[in-house]
Amino acid sequence: xxxxxxxxxxxxxxxxxxxxxxxxxxxxxxxxxxxxxxxxxxxxxxxxxxxxxxxxxxxxxxxxxxxxxxxxxxxxxxxxxxxxxxxxxxxxxxxxxxxxxxxxxxxxxxxxxxxxxxxxxxxxxxxxxx
Length: 130
Fold this sequence. Notes:
By secondary structure, the protein is α+β, with helices and mostly antiparallel strands. The protein has helices at 39-44, 55-61, 76-99, 108-129; strands spanning 3-6, 11-12, 19-20, 25-29, 34-36. 45% of the residues lie in helices and 12% in strands.
């Protein structure tokens, strides 16, 4: 995915010829290679713009999350419910992949769509049981 960055070098677009100076905003993507100061030209080269997150936002991802699990016995009823949850998760995952084949299954957007799909599946089950 591409992003908007500050140019580190003087350069020009090989597609449209637009030029930029050090410090100018340009659109850049490593693979497939796309670079231009014009968003339209960048996208014509196959670039997909994704807004860049600030350094402060990125640094928060590096902080470890401390998980504290309660020391409790898990009942057989709860274990059975989690088996159903696993089935819903698997179905939602495959259904999301079928509906959105171009989404990265490891991406946040895919996870959000899959989560919504699970919500919808569980709502459907409630409707069927009523």
